[in-house]
Amino acid sequence: MELRLCLRLHARLPPATTPPPPPFAAPAVLPASRRIRTGGSYGVALRRPTRRSNPAIRASEADGAPGVAVRERSVSVILLSGGQGKRMGASMPKQYLPLLGLPIALHSLKTFCQLKEMKEVVVVCDPDYSDVFEGSIENLQIPLKFACPGKERQDSVFNGLQEIDGDSELVCVHDSARPLVSSEDVKKVLEDAAVHGAAVLGVPVKATIKEANSDSFVVKTLDRKTLWEMQTPQVMKPDLLKAGFELVKRDGLEVTDDVSIVEYLKHPVYITEGSYTNIKVTTPDDMLLAERLMSGK
């Protein structure tokens, strides 16, 4: 009797309804002007909105302000293409190996030449390989210049800097071995450099980083929340870069990236959050990954 009553009551209940899932929301895209920076008057400013809970990071006073437009034909690109690429184990420098039918170096060149902000590209390369770039000029519709590579990276950048137009408002230094840089990321770092004088693409470090001594014993574990992996482009105002080079040469300093030259001036350098796909192709495994990323596999 009780069982039949329960069944009858259950039959009268309205069917359970599952609330429809909320529509998929695309991630919000922050304008280039939204900023987070480290405290203090000198240091590196961060573009990382997900870290606002970190007490070491505070919102920029310019947060929410409209972005700064970079004028058309106001940026000179220095495309570094003078490396030897010995780790690739190929018969030619890695930047000239074919990637989906096009030399690696030409992929980023094509990206830059399609942006209205660019006025010229100075290619720093071995003269024996200049024909790789000259053969693509007719399709690029942008002035192309050449400079010889130096012994070290900073020497190559310096040589390229001597060739840029004197009216350029920004100089954009890029490794030709990074063929997957996107036009969107380039535009973001250009805007940030226009505001702050110097900016660099970077991504938050994913792995745990440990400092070791000369005997390979761990000294300490670094705070991953404050670590960024630097990429290119690295963008600066020409006068800043020139002043930095004067200081570097005077004091005999060595640097491994371009914004380090500006850092020696005690000028703040802004980190524009880039993309993990902007890899540097240095090994055969990198080449395979680049092919997969470009082909969408």
From TrEMBL:
<dbReference type="Pfam" id="PF01128">
    <property type="entry name" value="IspD"/>
</dbReference>
<dbReference type="InterPro" id="IPR029044">
    <property type="entry name" value="Nucleotide-diphossugar_trans"/>
</dbReference>
<keyword id="KW-0414">Isoprene biosynthesis</keyword>
<comment type="pathway">
    <text>Isoprenoid biosynthesis; isopentenyl diphosphate biosynthesis via DXP pathway; isopentenyl diphosphate from 1-deoxy-D-xylulose 5-phosphate: step 2/6.</text>
</comment>
<dbReference type="GO" id="GO:0050518">
    <property type="term" value="F:2-C-methyl-D-erythritol 4-phosphate cytidylyltransferase activity"/>
</dbReference>
<protein>
    <recommendedName>
        <fullName>2-C-methyl-D-erythritol 4-phosphate cytidylyltransferase, chloroplastic</fullName>
        <ecNumber>2.7.7.60</ecNumber>
    </recommendedName>
</protein>
<dbReference type="InterPro" id="IPR018294">
    <property type="entry name" value="ISPD_synthase_CS"/>
</dbReference>
<dbReference type="InterPro" id="IPR050088">
    <property type="entry name" value="IspD/TarI_cytidylyltransf_bact"/>
</dbReference>
<dbReference type="InterPro" id="IPR034683">
    <property type="entry name" value="IspD/TarI"/>
</dbReference>
<dbReference type="GO" id="GO:0019288">
    <property type="term" value="P:isopentenyl diphosphate biosynthetic process, methylerythritol 4-phosphate pathway"/>
</dbReference>
<keyword id="KW-0808">Transferase</keyword>
<comment type="similarity">
    <text>Belongs to the IspD/TarI cytidylyltransferase family. IspD subfamily.</text>
</comment>
<keyword id="KW-0548">Nucleotidyltransferase</keyword>
<dbReference type="InterPro" id="IPR001228">
    <property type="entry name" value="IspD"/>
</dbReference>
